[in-house]
Write a structure and sequence with these properties.
This protein starts with a helix and ends in an 8-residue tail after the last strand. It contains 1 helix and 9 strands; from the N terminus they run H-E-E-E-E-E-E-E-E-E. The protein folds into 2 domains: 42 residues; 94 residues, Immunoglobulin-like. It has 142 residues and is an alpha+beta fold. A 5-stranded mixed beta sheet has the order 3-9-8-5-6, with no helix packed on it. Strand 1 and strand 2 form a beta hairpin. The structure holds copper (II) ion. Copper (II) ion binds next to loops.
Length: 142
C-alpha cells in the first residue's frame, strides 16, 4: 500500500510545488509589467528654458526606458533646439509666443548633446546641454 501511495503523492507534490513557483514567477512578471506601464502613463514633463546663452536645466538625467516630454520656452529671443547627430531640430519661439515640445525616449545608455540651432548672439556657440541616459539597474524597479 505504502509503495503505491508514495509514487502517487510524489507527482502531486511536485505539481503543487511547480504551481507555487509558477505563481510566484507570474506575480514577479506582473509587477514588472505594471511598473513599466505606470512609468509610461506618467510621462514626465521636463521644462527647459532657453535664454541667451544657456539652457536651464542644461543637463537632463534619464534611465533607459524613460520617456519624457521636453517643453522648451524662451526668456528672450527665438532660439532653436537641435539634438546633435539626429534629425531632431525645432524652433523655440520668442518669449511669450508659446513653447516647443518634443518626446524623448531613452532607448539606450549614452549622452546626447543638444544645442541652440538659431544664431542668437555672441554666445550662441556656447548654448548647449546634454541628455544623459544610464542603464537600468535592479534598484530602479519600482
Ligand atoms: Cu542660439
Amino acid at each position: 500500500m505504502a509503495t503505491r501511495l508514495f509514487p502517487q503523492l510524489t507527482p502531486r507534490a511536485a505539481r503543487a510545488l511547480a504551481c507555487g513557483l509558477a505563481v510566484v514567477l507570474a506575480a514577479l512578471a506582473l509587477n514588472g509589467d505594471s511598473a513599466d506601464a505606470r512609468r509610461q502613463s506618467e510621462r514626465r514633463v521636463v521644462h527647459v528654458t532657453a535664454e541667451r546663452f544657456s539652457f536651464t536645466p542644461s543637463e537632463i538625467k534619464l534611465v533607459v526606458g524613460d520617456e519624457i516630454e521636453i517643453r522648451l520656452k524662451s526668456q528672450d529671443t527665438s532660439h532653436g533646439f537641435k539634438l546633435v547627430g539626429t534629425e531632431t531640430e525645432l524652433a523655440i519661439p520668442k518669449r511669450g509666443a508659446g513653447e516647443a515640445s518634443l518626446i524623448f525616449k531613452a532607448a539606450e545608455p549614452g549622452r546626447w548633446t543638444f544645442e541652440c540651432s538659431r544664431v542668437c548672439g555672441a554666445g550662441h556657440n556656447f548654448m548647449r546641454g546634454v541628455i544623459i541616459v544610464r542603464a537600468k539597474e535592479k534598484s530602479d524597479a519600482r
